[in-house]
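Entry 0007
Protein: Riboflavin synthase
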Amino acid sequence: MFTGIVETTGFVKELNDNKENFEVTIQVNDHPTFLSDCQIGDSIACSGICLTVIEFDLKDNWFKVGISLETLRRTTIEKMWTKIGDTINLERAMGTGNQRFGGHYVQGHVDTIAEVVSAEQEGDSVNFKYKLRDLENVKYIVEKGFITVDGASLTVTFVDDDEGIFGVSMINHTRSVLCKRDIGTFVNIEVDVTGKMIAKQVELYMKKFTK
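Output (structure tokens):
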């Protein structure tokens, strides 16, 4: 479980893109303690994708993850993690104790991807619009609701249900933490799981009256 508050970024250090054994080694940027309590089997959100650590090095500050075919189908990995140096947003799983909860409940289970279609400056913020690859996911996106974009917890500012386009607004601080994504590139999208759960229950309930 994650909060969608990206802690730092990393980049592809090594890449084995054989689909039978797809593995990525990620070098952590500017966060020397990011892996300080890491264990084999831990989950780390990598641009919003919950991935399992299969190897790591505290001294050199890198970790390796294995990636399933299902993850490849759902995410931007084959589009955006294609060469050494490609950038990745990073967040460790939620801890215990007196940790503040800053974003929203994020599972790291990516639903689909979206293309960055526009970015317009407005004061200190930039208003981004994204177009979903899989239009059916737009029914879970509501104005002022939560959404996770490349691992970042954001508030939806605009939805076009017919076109499968939605918008968010990012302040300068948020943009400075995240990896830059240009217009025409792709991001991972996780819709709010609450909406999916409600939709499923309504669907099952309505089936009782259509038999």
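Curator remark: The chain has a mean pLDDT of 94. The chain is about 15% helix and 40% strand.
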